[in-house]
Specification:
The protein has helices spanning 4-14, 27-38, 58-70, 165-179, 250-258, 267-272, 274-290, and strands spanning 19-23, 42-46, 74-76, 81-87, 90-95, 100-103, 105-108, 124-125, 128-130, 149-152, 159-160, 192-197, 200-206, 217-223, 226-233, 236-243. It is α/β, with parallel strands linked by helices. The strands form 4 sheets. The chain has a 5-stranded antiparallel β-sheet, sandwiched between helices. A 4-stranded parallel β-sheet has the order 3-2-1-7. Strands 8-9-10-11 form a 4-stranded mixed β-sheet, with no helix packed on it.
């Protein structure tokens, strides 16, 4: 499930209520499960590990799973597929452990891999073509941007791909400036994701998920059905996970991360009053950078 033609193919084949298996547990798979469920179909979600594991810690993943289950989505985690067979008018899906599911339609939503042309001439890195801070490749006057670009990370300069629209736009601007002769450096890619599904919404920015929490300071707060997790390192905010807090503007937190605004002394207030505190820190930093504001 990658293109508009894929969507048309699915739409044209649905018809009446059907049982649909989705293989994948990322943002696209979750949004697809929502739309198909709201259209009256029975949805099975099959995850090789767990829902949105790369993006959120366990509390938010549990919220999401509970919400999907209440809406009728059946979720199977830690269940890599072994085979799919045609059986009568349907499909038999066999998973590790011997479990078998029946479905009318199977949709793979397992992510994307860029079609990299010229990889024999440009070194490959982490699934993309290696590019530097100017988005330049090793070939003179050849630049890369978007899903195919293995640019440097914002946090550690490690090269990798970041297949999301905001980073593709930013990389394209940097490449364009440099091609036109105006020297410009890319700040480095950073993860940005926003999800609205059923009656919840969630976002993550920066270094998040279960693994990063083991090596950084984590402060978090649950408020009814809402949840906020801040991940800090060396007095700086490096990641945010948020669930069902509609008053919070993700862009403000993105500013604090990408401008490396010190937040350590305000972290408790940032957790209790996130939008007000984040906005104050952003405005204060902007004014200090312009010279119109001094901090005593």
């Amino acid at each position: 499930f990658r293109t508009f033609n894929d969507f048309k193919k699915i739409q044209d084949s649905l018809g009446t209520r059907r049982t649909i298996a989705i293989y994948g547990a990322g943002f696209v798979a979750v949004e697809l499960a929502e739309k198909l469920t709201l259209s009256g179909h029975s949805v099975l979600m099959i995850a090789r590990s767990s829902l949105l594991r790369k993006y959120f810690g366990l509390p938010i993943r549990n919220f999401l799973r509970e919400t999907l289950t209440k809406q009728g989505v059946k979720i199977f985690t830690d269940s890599p597929l072994r085979s799919i067979r045609q059986v009568d008018q349907g499909l038999a899906l066999s998973m590790n452990g011997g479990k078998t599911l029946s479905a009318d339609l199977f949709i793979a939503a397992t992510g994307v891999v860029p079609n990299a042309l010229g990889s024999a001439f440009i070194p490959g890195v982490a699934g993309g073509l290696q590019a530097g801070r100017s988005m330049e490749t090793n070939l003179p006057d050849v630049y890369a941007a978007g899903d195919v670009a293995g640019g440097p990370s914002f946090f550690d300069d490690a090269h990798g791909v970041s297949p999301i629209l905001p980073e593709a736009v930013e990389q394209g601007k940097v490449a364009g400036y440099n091609m036109a002769g105006q020297k410009t450096e890319y700040r480095g890619w950073i993860s940005w994701n926003f999800l609205r599904c059923f009656d919840f919404h969630a976002f993550n920015i920066g270094l998040t998920g279960s693994e990063v929490a083991q090596t950084a300071e984590v402060v978090e707060q649950e408020d009814g059905n809402g949840f906020l997790r801040l991940i800090l390192k060396d007095h700086l905010l490096i990641g945010v996970e948020c669930f069902n807090q509609p008053s919070i503007n993700p862009g403000v937190f993105g500013y604090l991360i990408t401008r490396r605004v010190p937040v350590d002394e305000h972290k408790d207030l940032l957790l209790r009053r996130p939008m007000e505190t984040a906005s104050y820190l952003m405005v204060r930093h902007r004014r200090s950078q312009s010279g119109a504001f001094t901090i005593k």
